[in-house]
Each structure stands twice: as structure tokens, then as C-alpha cells.
Amino acid sequence: MQINELDFFNQATLRICSSLDIGEVAQACLDYLKLYIPLDGVMMSYYDEKRNAFVIMTLKSAVPLHTRLKIIPMPPEAAQLLKRVKNTVRIFNNTEEYLIPFTIWKTLGLVEKSSLVLFAGFKERRLGQIDFFVRGRDRYTEEHARLINLLYNPFCIAMANSLQYQEIVNIKDLFGDDIRRLRRELKQTSDTEIVGSGGGLQPIMETVSHVALLTTPVLLLGETGVGKELIANRIHYSSPRRDGPLVKINCGAIPEGLIDSELFGHEKGAFTGALSRQYGRFERAHQGTIFLDEVGDLPASVQSRLLRVLQEKEIDRVGGSNPVRVDVRVIAATHRNLEELVRDGLFREDLWFRLNVFPIHIPPLRERKSDIPMLVHHFIMNKSRELNLRVNPELAPGAMERLMAYDWPGNVRELQNVVERALIRMRITDSSRPIDFDEIAPLPDTRQRHRMPESGRSFLSLDEAARQHIEAALDRTGGRIQGEGGAAELLKINANTLRHRMRLLGIRYGRQRKNL
To answer: What is the pTM of this model?
Structure first.
């Protein structure tokens, strides 16, 4: 039969490229190619080095086979044998002469057969192989191999596309599973009662239950470690926006040069390294809530753009020319005194008015010590499960009194760390020994350290105390901020974060400091 090779190539390529579903492609090729070559089936597979096995991507056959098998283990020498195989089309008219084909087809239940095998590759990468097979031996000729070889490039491209498509599908499924899992965890978190909500936090939680139903911006005020993020979670998951995203960002942890892009996104080519459009946190929070932690650390340039979001409900991506509408509820939090920052010119007054619509002050742990026993019990139970402790830890006599006497400058977070540290020490040393919290300072020292100032004696503001502390570190390091022995290392913070705080506090550095 005289074959028009151009028409054969075009018609076969149409079928090869007809779908990203490799099973549909195999069936279409089987139906068409059997008009030109002896053909009972088509199998596409690839070699998995980690498992030393062939993975069957698809198998379409007109003869009975063990089609449920998807992974076929190989002999130990298979990897070395495959390295010698070149990307081409080969004839196997007697499978028993070759170890790998014999292993595959014996497993599938068809040894008396002939194969044309296309070893596919793309851009110097080995992809896999396509078996065109028929019952009986010595059924294929060089002319059959030549016809299949005409389709080498289309088959390689189709196989590469299918593998990449399957990888994307797997990633999508993985992300889908992760998203569903995270939603369940967040739902459980939102449904879990906050420890202390019936004690020292009861007035706060009553306020939260009312404001959660609104769309009003909320400003959470309180010292570091009091649980502002937990309150933000409760507001969002008790609100009508609970099914939307809750996006969180720590404004003080992002370098000043990147925070615009992080919050508002950027267009492709907006700056060096902007290879594609990136959506910012506000766009990701559309129809949900954004939690701006440490909002007092925002640079002045970002404060003006945040004000526009609150006023106009739209953002401008970095490098963009068209505004983007966003529907986002803002919950902000800070441990700093924003009124003082406004007076010092470090925070915009109009932005403060916008954020301060409904402020909620979360009291520090030292002002609600009645919550300490509940918190300690809660942390012990949770951390014991995490650490796989087989016993129920008990408190030593006087341990709770020691905790109640301490003023907890690090608040709930410090208490949690103290409990976890005590449980780890107990697990390492003696799991039967009661917890005594002996790392907490003795009672007299604790009272002395945290006692209130005497009448008439002024207290340094938090910013002034931080300023003096940073100045002392700079004096010790000779003004050097980063690197080994620098102030950032001494203070155990990132150098960019230190510079940002110095700018907010008006501390000079670099040449300005040398000229003092």
C-alpha cells in the first residue's frame, strides 16, 4: 500500500495533539495507526529511578492484559541498562531476549508479542517510552519502524506536555487538600474558646462579639504577647466574612523597600526582578479580612497608600496605572502608642483617625492574673500531647504561687514558653518529677524588678527606653549596625529591622552618626 507520508503525519499529529489526557491520545492513536501497522495496543510509561520501577501512564489494548497494574518493579541492573538506550525507535520482535521488556510484558501477561518502542526525550531529558504492540513474534519490519519514527517529535512533545500537565494537576490537588485541611484547622481554632474569655478577658470578648458583626475597622492595642492575633482570628471567624480569606502581615518584619509590593502587589517589569504580575496582600484578602500586625512600624510612604485604601477602597499596584477595587475589612494591631507617634510626626494623624474607629485594648497578663491557672493548665495539656508525654504532669508545691507572683513582661507568650521549657526539661531528666518552674526569678527579685515607680517618679516611655537601649548597643559597637559584632547581632534582630526602628525613633546612623 502506497502511503502519503505528509497526510499520514498530519492526520496522526492531529490525534497526538488532540488532548492533554494521555489516555485519550493513546486511544486515538490506536484507532488510527492500526490502519497502517499491525497493532493491538499502545502503552505509555516512564522509569522512576527512586522506586526502580516503570510507571504506566496509560495502557489501551484490544487484548486482555493486567491493566490494573500501574507500577512494575525492575531488576537491580535496570538503571544501568536504560542509560545505554538512545532516544529513538526500536523493534523488539522477541521480548524474551531483553531483560526490561521481558520483565514488563511478563508482568502484564503478554510475552508472545512484538513491539515497536519509541524512547521519548525532550531537550536532552529522558521522558519515557511508548510501546506499540501486537500479538505474535516477528510482526514488525523496518518500514513500520520508519513510519513511527516520522511521528517521533509529536509524540515527544505530547508526552512532555502530559507529564507537565499531570504535575500541575497533582500540585493543584495537593494545594486543594492543604486548603481544606487549613480551613478545618482554622474553623476549629475559631470555634475553640479563648482561654480567659470567661475571666479577665470577658469584657473584651463581649466587645469582640458585637464588633465582629460589623465591617468597621478595628484597632487592637496591647503589649507584645497578649494575644492580639487570637482576637483578630475571633473577629474574622465570627463575622459575615468568615468564608472569605484572612490574610495576615507583620508590618515590622518586611524590609521597607519590599513592603509596597507585599501589600499592594506589582506589575510585570515594575522593577528589576519583577518577572510577572504579583498580587499583594490586599488583593488576596478581597471579600475577607486583612490583619496588619505592628501597623505602627509602617513607613510614611506606605501610610499614605493605606489611607487611600481605607478611604477609596482601591489600591494601585507598584508600576501599575489602573486602580484595583478591593473589598477588605482591616484589623490593625500595635504595641506602640500611636498617639505619641502622631505627636512626634512618625504616624499620620488622618490614618490614625481611620484606624481608631473601634479600638480594643487587650490588658497584659499582669493585670489579669486570675487567668494564669487556666492558661497554665491549657498549655500543659496541649504541650504534653505535642511532646508525647505518657504521664500527666503535676505542679510542685508553691509552683503556681511563683507564677502568680511574677509580672510576666512577655505576657501570655512568655508563660507559654516557660511551660513548654519546663515540660521539655522534665522529659529529658525525670518525667515523674513535678514541675517547679525554678527558672522564674525568686519572688523578692521579681517584685523588685517589676514594682511600680515611687510616687512622683516618672517612668520612661517604651519608645524612649528602646531608644536608649539601641543607643547603648551602637556605642558598644562603635556605630556599626550589621555584620559580626554589630548592633543588630547584639540586639538579636535583623539589620534592616534595626535601621527601620532607628528611623522611627529618630536615631542617626551611618555618616550622620559619625558627624555627631
So the answer is: 0.53
Q: CA 12, CA 121: separation in Å to the nearest integer?
A: 19
Closest CA to 324 of 276, 271, 282: 282
| Integer angstrom CA distances of residue 488 from 258, 293, 492, 499, 504 | 20, 22, 6, 9, 16
Going from N- to C-terminal start, the domains of the chain cover: 5-166, 195-361, 367-450, 462-514
Coil vs helix vs strand at 499: helix
Specify the long-range contacts of residues 77-80, CB closer than 8 Å, at least 24 apart: 78/47, 78/52, 78/103, 79/47, 79/49, 79/52
Please count the CA atoms within 13 angstroms of the CA of 11 that sit on its side-chain side.
14
CA 15 to chain CA mean position, Å: 40
Distance CA 164, CA 112 (A): 34
- The single-letter DSSP state of residue 316 is -
What are φ and ψ of residue 281, in 5° steps?
A: -65, -35
Please enumerate in sequence order all residues whose Cβ is within 8 A of that of 342, keeping only pairs 6 or more positions apart, or say none.
Answer: 348, 349, 352
- Phi, psi torsion values for 285, nearest 5 degrees: -90, 10
- Three-state DSSP class for residue 426: helix
**Alpha carbon 416 to chain centroid, angstroms:** 24
pLDDT tens readout for residues 290-329 = 999 999 998 888 898 899 899 999 998 888 878 889 999 9
- Tens digits of residue pLDDT in 189-204: 544 456 655 566 888 8
Question: What CATH fold (topology level) applies to the domain 195-361?
Answer: Rossmann fold (3.40.50)
Strands 358-361 vs 218-221: parallel, antiparallel or unpaired: parallel
State the cell numbers at 477. Answer: 559597637
Q: Domain 367-450: which topology?
A: Helicase, Ruva Protein; domain 3 (1.10.8)
CATH class of 5-166: alpha beta
Helix or strand run (H / E) with residue 22: helix 22-33
Chain centroid offset of residue 483 CA: 29
* Measured distance CA(437)–CA(455) in Å, rounded: 33
C-alpha distances out from residue 404 to 195, 365, 368, 398, 485, Å: 16, 10, 10, 10, 38
Task: Give the strand pairing for 113-122 and 324-325.
Answer: unpaired
Q: Please state the length of the chain.
A: 516
Would you give the distance in Å from CA 512 to the centre of its chain? Answer: 40
The CA distances from residue 311 to 287, 339, 353, in Å, are: 16, 21, 11
Rounded to whole angstroms, the Cα distance separating 106 from 111 reads 6
